Amino acid sequence: MIDHALPRPAAVRRRGLLAASALLVAAAVAAAPAEAGVSTPKVVSPRGLVVQESAVGAGGGRVAVLMGGLAATVRGSAGSVQARIGPASRLGHPQRLGTGGTGLRVAVGADGTAVAAWITHARGGPAVLQVAVARAGHGFGRAQAISRAGSLALGGVGVTPSGRAAVTWRRGVSGTPVLLAVAAPGGAFGAPQPLGTSRQYAPALAVGPDGTIVVAWLDTPPAPQPPPAPAPATRTARVLAVTLVPGASTATPAAELGTLAFWFSGPEAAAGPGGTAVTWRQTGTGKLLSSPSAPGAFGTPVALPPAPYAADQGDHLALALPGDGTQVALWREVRTRSAEDPTPTFAVVRASVRPAGGTFAAPVRLSAAGRLAGPPQAIALTGRTVAAWAESGGAAARVRLAVLASGGGWSKRTAPAAPGIDPATLAVAGTPGAAALTWIAHAGSGSRETARLMLAVYHP
C-alpha cells in the first residue's frame, strides 16, 4: 500500500530507500504501543481524488473513512465514493463503492462491523439511497439501494455492538415519512419501517452501548397557504423520538420530547459509554437534552446554561456521554459582522459539564483568544472526554484538542498544524482507547487545486 503522506522521490535509488524506510516505520507502528498525544496527520484519500465530502467512524479496533468527490479519469473527472477501513495505523486499500454521492455517513460497531450510506443523483432520474456493509474483519461489500424518491434527506447511521446496522432518512420535501431500515448481523437491509412524519430537516440516529437504537426528528406544522385557505390551527413544532431495543423488529411509538414555537434546526442524537441523548435548540437561546429512561420513554429535558444572546449557541451541539454518568456539552459562540453579512468576527468554543443527576455548570471557553474557532466535536473514551475543533485567523490553521479526565478539569493538547483545513469538515470518532480525527485540506487553485482527506489519531 502506498503511503501518500510521503513525498514522491525524484530518483529511483531514493525511491527504494524511502520505501524501505516506510516499511520499517510501518512495522514499528504495528509492533510498538501507541504513544500518548496526537499523531502527525497523514493523507488517506487516494491520489487523484478531489475530496468534497467525508465521514469517519471507529469501533472494534477499526477506523472507516468515507470520501466523496471527483476522481481523475482519462476523460477528465467523474464522481466517486470511496472508502478505506482497517486499523488507524494501516488502513486498507481504497475501495470504490459507487459514483458521486452526497450526504455521506459511516459508523463502526464494537464488533468491527461498519455501515456506509450516501445518496446518488442520476441525471434525469430519482435520488437513490445506497448503503454498504463491511463485516467484521472484511472490507465493504456491494452497495444496496434501499430507497428511491424525487428527494431524499439522509439522517444518521449506526451499528450495535452485535453488528446490527441501522440507517434513517426522510423521503420527499414536506409532510413525508421518517423511515428506519435495519440489517441483521451479516445480512442485507430489510424493508424500511415508517416512524412518523416530518416536513423539515433530516432525522438523527444514535446507538447506545446496550444496542438500543434512538431516532429523533422534528415535526413542523404545514406552511401557511394564501387566502382563501384557512390559517393553520397551530404553529407549534414537536420534537419526536423512538427507540428500537435489541431483539425487537419494530420501533416504539413516537414520544414527544418537547415543543417549539420557533425552530432553526432539527434535533441531534448522541451516544457514548454513558448511553444516548437527544438534543435540540429551544426558542433560540439555548439547548435542551433528554435521555431514554426506558424503551420508548425519555426523561425530563435538562437545559444548558443560557447563551448571552440568541444566536450564540448555533445549530450544532457536540455532546459526549462518558461512562460515569456525566454529560459534556460543547458549542460554538459566534458573532458576525451583521445580519446581512455572516462573516464571523468572533468565534469561540465553550464547554459545560453536567455531573450525574446534577445540572450543567457555568460554561468555560476552550478555544484560544484572538482565533476563529470552527464547530466543535466531542467523543468519550475510557476515563476521559476528548474535544476537538479547528482554529484559524492570526496564525497557521490548527486542529486543537482539549481533554477532560474523569473527575478532573480540562487540559489543552498541542495539535499539529492543519494548513488549508476546512473547519466545517472536522469529524471525530472513537474507540475506548483512541480517537480518530479527519478533515479536508485544500491547496492550490484552479486546475492545480487539491482537496485531500487527512487523518490524525489521539492516544491518551
TrEMBL record:
Protein name: Uncharacterized protein
First and last residue of the signal peptide: 1-36
UniProt keyword annotations, A-Z: Signal
